[in-house]
Design brief:
- This protein is of the alpha+beta class.
- The chain has two domains: 5-97; 110-299, Gcn5-related N-acetyltransferase (GNAT) (Aminopeptidase), CATH 3.40.630.
- Helix content is 32%, strand content 26%.
- The protein is built from eight helices and 14 strands.
- It has helices at residues 38-49, 73-83, 124-132, 147-164, 177-183, 223-238, 253-261, 294-310, and strands at 5-13, 26-33, 55-65, 89-91, 95-97, 110-111, 115-118, 168-173, 187-195, 208-214, 243-249, 265-266, 272-273, 285-292.
- The strands form three sheets. Strands 1, 2, 3, 4 and 5 form a five-stranded antiparallel beta sheet that branches. Strands 6-7-8-9-10 form a five-stranded antiparallel beta sheet, sandwiched between helices.
- Strand 6 and strand 7 (115-118) form a beta hairpin.
- Helix 3 packs across helix 4.
- The longest helix is centred in the middle third of the chain and has 18 residues, at 147-164.
- It is elongated, with a radius of gyration of 23 Å.
Length: 311
């Protein structure tokens, strides 16, 4: 049996120029130590981080580990580091985030074969602004966006995520860690699910929508389909949502085909004028697609079967 080690996840804050925070005002990190208990671990972490200009705000997931075989490689490495010195505190990677009014960050991340969907970081803003200024990408949107308008969108996505635990995420291509550290992962665009900010006609509120905005170099490569499948799985399996909607311009044939491939069904008779568009805008007419949680259907059918057997 290994020497007992205490591990925990800590939220810390500091100045943006702090070398540990990499331009963020706050971060999460995992720590491990041969402490005497949870309180001792907290004291050690505070004592270790304070001299480096960091303040511990909160901690969670603190537990005593006597067998690390089921833990991730990263946590196993932390524990090995802590075992070398009984007095030391081993710290993992600082996972920075934008601190919005003291709210806890949304740490939701999804990984598919080719994609990494994650919370927004400061480095994403310029890339997203370039995407939003591309007239071809924004063909079916009300207008192209200025840098300020694009940044406002990111701020709204972050705020939405804090509120509900899910939202529109930044999408990047997965790369080898060493290459990403040198060059950064290629920014693909925005993908996610969020509570609709506007009330749709004939749709019960609150409703959750699926959304995409993909940079031109990464269109028509199946990335939106790959990300969409992962997001619907998240919506139905993890968040147990009863249904997911998508709003799309009637003329946007590629997006409508994508939604159909994802299993969404066109809600005929739900066409409407999108108020975000001017009255005479060529693509102002929108329609609605919908998909129900397949697990909910299975549960209902299963319960019905059990009833028939008992009767």
């Amino acid at each position: 049996m290994m020497t007992p080690v205490w591990i925990g996840r800590f939220q810390v804050t500091g100045s943006r120029d702090n070398p540990y925070l990499n331009g963020f005002p706050a971060a999460y990190l995992w720590v491990a130590s041969q402490a005497a208990g949870a309180d001792a671990l907290k004291s050690r972490v505070a004592a270790a981080l304070t001299p480096n200009g960091l303040t511990v705000v909160s901690s969670d997931r603190i537990e005593r580990i006597t067998d690390d075989s089921a833990l991730s490689y990263e946590l196993q490495k932390l524990i090995r580091d802590s075992l070398r010195n009984p007095e030391a505190v081993a710290c993992g990677k600082f996972q920075g985030f934008e601190d919005h009014a003291g709210l806890r960050p949304m740490l939701l991340e999804l990984k598919t074969e080719r994609l990494h969907l994650r919370p927004w970081e400061p480095r994403d803003r310029a890339s997203f602004a370039a995407l939003n200024a591309d007239r071809e990408v924004m063909t079916f949107m009300p207008k192209i966006l200025t840098r300020a308008e694009s940044d406002d969108s990111v701020d709204r996505y972050l705020a939405d995520s804090h509120k509900t635990g899910f939202g529109f995420l930044a999408a990047e291509l997965k790369t080898k860690e060493r290459l990403q550290a040198l060059t950064g992962a290629p920014f693909v665009g925005m993908m996610g699910i969020r509570v609709m900010p506007d009330v749709l006609p004939l749709v019960q509120q609150p409703a959750v929508e699926l959304g995409f905005r993909i940079a031109r170099p990464y269109q028509r490569k199946g990335l939106a389909l790959e990300g969409g499948r992962a997001l619907l799985n998240l919506a139905f399996r993890d968040f147990q949502l009863p249904e997911v909607f998508a709003v799309v311009a009637l003329a946007n044939t590629p997006a409508r085909r994508l939604l159909e491939k994802l299993g969404l069904t066109h809600r005929t008779g739900f066409e409407f004028h999108n108020p975000a568009f001017s009255t005479r805008h060529l693509y102002a007419r929108h329609t609605v697609y919908q998909i129900a949680n397949p697990e909910a259907g299975k549960s209902e059918r299963g319960s019905g079967t059990r009833k028939s057997r008992s009767s």
